[in-house]
Specification:
About 15% of the residues lie in helices and about 20% in strands. By secondary structure, the chain is α+β, with helices and mostly antiparallel strands. It starts with a strand and ends with a strand.
């Protein structure tokens, strides 16, 4: 079995509860690790925080930034990479610019050229509408017992909401579900699965909607899917 688990930087839905960043989502590499360490049943599993890495213009690799030469490092997030791909970014000149998007170039060492051409072709075709992304799910969404959705706003519509229900009333999965299904045993815990197996829709528990239903994320009015 596994002994280590690498935790990402973005524990979705967990904002700062106080201080200058109150309300903002947590992004520190150790925040998600601390949360999982407190979960029941982890045993001897050790959790590793995933720290953000930057592109080093001097040796053309992704690494933790050196604070003594911060101007040599460029942040290339997933969002920036997708934007560059959709723009059809070409290899950068020898003198790598700091604003990659404005220069429409990708630095050497970030990705092998053939791989970048495939990624760029995919996102360019998405933008032009030449094809439907392979990950876009057609048809219904399997839902577990105790879940309810509206027939007027089914899965695939921006207004789709999946609620937890008990006794004919909606229940918040954050505040209304017990940790254990039965009080007599602590060997089994309740688990809320936002994205069911076989689905690629970006489904998330909503922080600002009453009873915290599961809804599909949107960007600029379009439904989002994992690609």
């Amino acid at each position: 079995g596994a002994s280590y688990f690498t935790v990402g930087r973005d524990p979705a839905g967990m904002p700062f509860s106080s201080g200058p960043n109150e309300g903002d989502d947590l992004y520190h590499p150790d925040h998600g690790r601390y949360v999982l360490m407190s979960s029941p049943g982890v045993g001897q599993m050790r959790f590793l925080g995933f720290e953000k890495v930057y592109y080093d213009k001097k040796d053309h690799t992704m690494r933790t930034p050196d604070r003594s030469r911060k101007d040599d490092f460029i942040s290339i997030s997933g969002s920036k990479m997708r934007k560059l791909a959709a723009l059809g970014a070409k290899p950068c000149p020898d003198l790598i610019p700091s604003d990659l998007v404005a220069s429409k170039c990708i630095p050497p060492g970030f990705m092998v050229q053939k791989g970048w051409e495939i990624v760029s072709d995919y996102y360019m075709r998405q933008k032009t509408g030449d094809w439907v992304p392979y990950s876009k799910q057609l048809g219904g969404l399997p839902m577990g017992a105790g879940m309810q959705s509206s027939a007027e706003q089914p899965f695939g519509k921006p207004g789709f909401k999946a609620y937890h229900a008990s006794g004919g009333a909606f229940v918040s999965p954050w505040h209304g579900l017990a940790l254990y299904p039965t009080a007599a045993s602590n060997l089994v815990v309740n688990f809320v699965c936002e994205i069911p197996r076989g689905s690629t829709a970006k489904l998330e528990v909503q922080k600002s909607v009453p009873f915290n239903p599961i809804m599909q994320d949107t960007k600029k009015g379009a439904l989002r899917y994992y690609t």
